[in-house]
Amino acid sequence: MEEAYRAALACIPGMNILALPRLIEMAGGPTTLWNIFENGGGRAAALVGSEKAAQFKEASRSSHPGMVLKELKRHGIRVMFPGGPDFPERLTSIYDPPAVLFMKGNQLPHQGMYVAVVGARRASGYGKWVAETLAAQLAGLGIVVVSGAAYGVDACAHLGCLKASGFTAAVLGCGIDRIYPAEHEKLFQNIENSGCIVSEYPPGAEPLAWHFPHRNRIIAGLSHAVVVVEAAEKSGALITADMALEEGREVLAVPGPINSFLSLGTNALIQKGAKLVRSIEDICDELPWDFSHAASTPPGLPGAQLAGIELSILDLLRGGPRSLDWLSARLERNPGELLPCLTEVSLKGWVGEEVGGKYRLLRDPEMPSRIKSNRSIKIQQ
User: Fold this and answer.
1) Residue 71: which residues within 8 A CB-CB, separation 6 or more?
2) How confident is the model over 111-132, as pLDDT tens digits?
3) What is the dihedral of CA 123, 127, 130, 136, to 10 degrees?
């Protein structure tokens, strides 16, 4: 069983995960490579050196691929590999495709679009809002949102997708059983329940610094387009963007203030030719998918799900942009109580926030429109 041998090889202590695909190819297959390591000797030493060969011989003789796979499944971990039925086809053609992927949660959708939303870990409030809003809108159109589960933009992208009842994929730079950062335990649980968590690193692998640039090639490879929300001049998100360009993926960036260090990377990308993102429409225009057949109200965001107070907000906003204080006075609700409702209708795609803090109606639930207008949430600065 190929998945068992690939998983077992990846789980050998000291195995170079990035070198594993080449070792499998040189040996003529994962089963042959396992047997070479199990037997030891000159051929194993020729592949990995005498010290590693001795280490791998001991590890392979004290284990068995079938038992490794059984133990993984016992912990809810599935295995995907190139050529297997569940392995994403887009990953087979990237430079340095992974030899194996470990996954928890739901199966990656075979059809539809994938968009990565990445950016700064120390994101600003603006960056977090943009990431969450765009991800919710993408999810509403049935697009899979991909990110890296890190602080800041990544976490907000996953959160926005989840709030819109979408499918999100988190690609880790550590073992599939590790929650990193630890503060994201609840987020990881929600992603696993509604989407999936993916890693090429075996269970137990530490979140080492050099893992993350390598995992970025999987984020880029999975996606049809990569959107960078905020990024400093030297940022991991820019590595993802470079890898996406190398793989022929679309790269887009959200502009930011010229006096913010978090805008240096995104503004430079735009200057070099990345598409400037003002709205969800700008992203959808770059995807090889016909949105004309999409529902007029994106799935997961139907008007029937609006609560009473939310409908009251939309009704007041038909008269034009209004401030939080104005809405609070008209609805006789204190601002602290009203703000979560405004955030919710914003994430659902009904309302947008303008410069100066006023809210305006983007879509009227009583006036169905075509998908083009549903995608017109503007990203204001």
Assistant:
1) none
2) 889 999 999 999 999 999 999 9
3) 0
Instruction: Tell me whether residue 325 is exposed, middle or buried, using C-beta atoms within 10 angstroms of its C-beta: 0 to 12, 13 to 18, 19 or more.
Output: exposed
Reply yes or no on whether the pLDDT at 193 is more than 60.
Answer: yes
pTM, two decimal places: 0.78
Q: Which pLDDT score, from 0 to 100, does residue 18 have?
A: 93
Cis (ω within 30 of 0) for the bond into 202?
A: no
Q: Got the DSSP string for 197-230?
A: EEESSPTT----TTHHHHHHHHHHHH-SEEEE--
Among 140-154, 217-231, 267-281, 291-305, the minimum mean pLDDT is found in 291-305
Is the separation of the CB atoms in 79 and 69 below 8 Å? yes
DSSP string of 322-347? B-HHHHHHHHT--HHHHHHHHHHHHH
Neighbours of 336 (CB within 10 A): 9
How many CA within 13 A on the CB side of residue 47?
Answer: 27
- 74, 80, 86, 88: CA torsion to nearest 10: 140
Q: How far apart are CA 16 and CA 21, in angstroms?
A: 10
Region 126-151: mean pLDDT is 94
Cα separation, 25 vs 80, in Å, equals: 17
pLDDT value for 292: 52
Question: In Å, how far from its chain's centre is CA 349?
Answer: 20
Other beta carbons less than 10 A from residue 116's beta carbon: 31
Q: How far apart are CA 214 and CA 83, in angstroms?
A: 21
- What residues contact 186, with CB distance under 8 A and at least 6 apart? none
Q: Report how far residue 353's alpha carbon sits from residue 345's, in angstroms, rounded to the nearest whole number.
A: 11
Place of tokens 């609700």: 333
Q: Name the 3-class secondary structure at 359.
A: strand
Per-position DSSP letters for 302-315, written without gaps between them: -GGG--HHHHHHHH
Asked if pLDDT for residue 303 goes beyond 50, the answer is: no
- Token reading at 109: 């959708």
Q: What six digits make up the tokens of 152? A: 């800041």
Collapse the DSSP code of 300 into the 3-class scheme (helix H, G, I; strand E, B; otherwise coil) and give the result: coil
For residues 371 and 286, give the distance between their C-alpha atoms in angstroms, rounded to a whole number: 15
Specify the DSSP class assigned to residue 49. Answer: -
Q: Which residue has the tokens 């795609």?
A: 349
